């Protein structure tokens, strides 16, 4: 009986949380991590990898859809044709929702790029960790109060100390992804008459478009891009190798050309 009484408060809190959209937002991010782990473990073969990739996109679409729903419900967002472009430039949640919905649809046409998920897994991890710390951990009565306090402090310290580093890593993943997709987009465009690459080309262009929106809106991303380019160009192996420099500038100019040409 004592054990049941100790569990009851947490179950009561959990039942109340289930009635809130934020809980499903948390659950969506948790499922993204679950399917992402299966992808990275590579235990289930190509077909199942595609399945888990689509699951990640589907759950992420739902999580961002929940946030958008909350914005619409509270009157902070309205979908009018005249303002949709401005909303896309301002609201990163809408940018991610459009991207993820598009990628989910295009995955059935052959566009699957696991690298796109890397930064999203980092964001989901921090979302889950923060929600757990704020909304679930304080009410797990099976864990002693002192232990809960210590865990809370440890999680808070981890988030505060590693948030900037992990954000930079996520930006690095996004930069490398858009860099490769810029090169591949040109290949897809040139090979379109010979190979059925339409969905792959559209997928690459959508991600480049998304990255450009993020680049315009996010000052920290712009700084990280500039820092990364400067770091590569000042690296000793680059300075000491003129041929490598020439190759780098050719690829970089291709990337910048595609990014600049992408309308927003």
TrEMBL record:
The chain crosses the membrane at residues 23-45, 51-72, 93-111, 185-210. It comes from the Eukaryota. GO terms for cellular component: endoplasmic reticulum; membrane. It holds the Pfam family TMEM33_Pom33. One of its GO terms (biological process) is endoplasmic reticulum tubular network organization. Keywords: Membrane, Transmembrane, Transmembrane helix. The keyword Zinc-finger does not apply. It is found in: Membrane. It is a multi-pass membrane protein. Belongs to the PER33/POM33 family. This is Pore and endoplasmic reticulum protein of 33 kDa. It comes from Candida glabrata (strain ATCC 2001 / BCRC 20586 / JCM 3761 / NBRC 0622 / NRRL Y-65 / CBS 138). The lineage of its organism: Eukaryota, Fungi, Dikarya, Ascomycota, Saccharomycotina.
């Amino acid at each position: 009986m004592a054990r049941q009484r100790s569990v009851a408060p947490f179950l009561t809190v959990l039942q109340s949380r289930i009635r809130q959209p934020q809980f499903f937002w948390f659950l969506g991010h948790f499922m993204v991590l679950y399917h992402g782990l299966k992808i990275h473990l590579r235990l289930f073969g190509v077909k199942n990898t595609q399945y888990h990739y689509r699951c990640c996109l589907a759950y992420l679409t739902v999580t961002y859809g929940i946030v958008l729903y909350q914005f619409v419900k509270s009157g902070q967002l309205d979908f009018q044709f005249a303002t949709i472009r401005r909303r896309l430039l301002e609201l990163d949640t809408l940018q991610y929702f459009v991207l993820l919905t598009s990628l989910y649809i295009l995955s059935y046409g052959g566009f699957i790029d696991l690298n796109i998920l890397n930064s999203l897994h980092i964001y989901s991890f921090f979302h889950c960790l923060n929600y757990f710390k704020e909304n679930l951990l304080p009410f797990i009565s099976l864990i002693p109060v002192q232990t809960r306090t210590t865990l809370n402090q440890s999680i808070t310290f981890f988030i505060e100390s590693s948030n900037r580093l992990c954000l930079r890593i996520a930006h690095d993943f996004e930069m490398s992804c858009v860099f490769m997709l810029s090169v591949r987009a040109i290949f897809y465009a040139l090979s379109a008459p010979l190979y059925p690459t339409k969905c792959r080309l559209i997928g690459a262009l959508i991600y480049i478009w998304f990255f450009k929106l993020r680049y315009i809106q996010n000052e920290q991303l712009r700084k990280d891009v500039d820092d990364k380019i400067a770091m590569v160009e000042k690296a000793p192996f680059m300075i000491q190798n003129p041929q490598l420099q020439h190759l780098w500038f050719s690829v970089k100019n291709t990337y910048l050309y595609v990014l600049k040409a992408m309308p927003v």
